[in-house]
Amino acid sequence: MKVSDRIAGLTGGGPDGWDLYRKARRMIAEGVSVTELTIGEHDVRTDPSILEAMRASAAGGHTGYAALPGTDALRTAVAARIEARTGVPTSRRNVVITPGGQAALFAAHVVACDPGDRALFIDPYYATYPGTIRAAGAIAVTVAAEAERDFRPDPAAIEAALPARSILVNSPNNPTGVVYDRATLDGIGEVARAHDLWIVSDEVYDTQVWSGAHLSPRALPGLAERTLVVGSLSKSHAMTGSRLGWLAGPEEAIAHAINLTTHTTYGVPGFVQDAGLFALARGEALETAIAAPFRRRHALAMRVLSSAGVRVVPSTASMYVMADIRPTGLSGEAFADRLLDTHAIAVMPGESFGRAAAGHLRIALTVADDRLDAALTTLANFHNTLKRQAA
């Protein structure tokens, strides 16, 4: 039997961007000691107090079907967090709890787009974006944010990609670590208002900003009614495996998203939601503690790579840095493959995140400082050797 064109075409007929990651995992399974700087997985796991709250909730009986939109208490807590960060009045009716940010991304595009609508997203992009848009039945259309602009999108390029029904933005950005400034977001907002676009704003890295401040499009004049915000406890609270996220937006849109959960995920386990509520109640002190290693390692990476002559994309956020290895004459894919084979260091090639990031590497800052320092030094020396050979 033939499967649907939608599912067969989920990755657009090409690779899904995860080939090197899978290769590194195969090497590890075969006993090779690989320094893995690929995915955004915390090296310090979920705080024991959060796990205890989860255990206590499950032991107390919160193991049946959970409230589909999310528990009132958790939705209220998420709404309060969003209102405090954006200044936009927000209630639980503006929030639906989802199984991680990925499910929220899918729900946002189902809400925003009809089948066949064009949905824009910025290149470089998180690897699941195009497949998520296609899964929602929309047509995935990239808008390049060029390296020469430090990967900040040009509103004129967004306008040139129209017509469309939505634009997906991600700030703080994965993979680049760039935070969009007010001028960039104002330009995106002007295009959205002029052409009646939904803005889907992926803000899962909003607690990992090392200088300056994160600004949500939802907080800008006239954008709250057309912005759907994707959030998650994965990065802010080291709860990646708990799969606890949310979608926030206009009340009518969220009501439809709640209806979608009835027909897809059927909610998030109640004991996981209770653990999330406990985590949020710990306040900014816990979030700051979880972010602290990445703040420190970001500074370390910028120092080690820059001092060795490797250009690093100017960034002020996230658990990643992006290095420009074009002077070696290799693609990001070729460089990353040779680095893994030669030195057992695994990084993600820029091509995994779109064409605009070709010739770059995304380096996850997810191992202990001393090990990271050694890996970055090896990477820089390898880069410089290849650069001399290319010259």
TrEMBL record:
Its EC number is 2.6.1.-. One of its GO terms (biological process) is amino acid metabolic process. Residues 34-378 form the Aminotransferase class I/classII large domain. GO terms for molecular function: L-aspartate:2-oxoglutarate aminotransferase activity; pyridoxal phosphate binding. Belongs to the class-I pyridoxal-phosphate-dependent aminotransferase family. This is Aminotransferase. It catalyses: L-aspartate + 2-oxoglutarate = oxaloacetate + L-glutamate. Pfam families: Aminotran_1_2. It comes from Silicimonas algicola. Keywords: Aminotransferase, Pyridoxal phosphate, Pyruvate, Transferase. PROSITE patterns: AA_TRANSFER_CLASS_1. It comes from the Bacteria. InterPro entries: Aminotransferase_I/II_large, AspAT/PAT-like, NHTrfase_class1_PyrdxlP-BS, PyrdxlP-dep_Trfase, PyrdxlP-dep_Trfase_major, PyrdxlP-dep_Trfase_small. Its cofactor is pyridoxal 5'-phosphate. The keyword Transferase applies. SUPFAM superfamilies: PLP-dependent transferases.
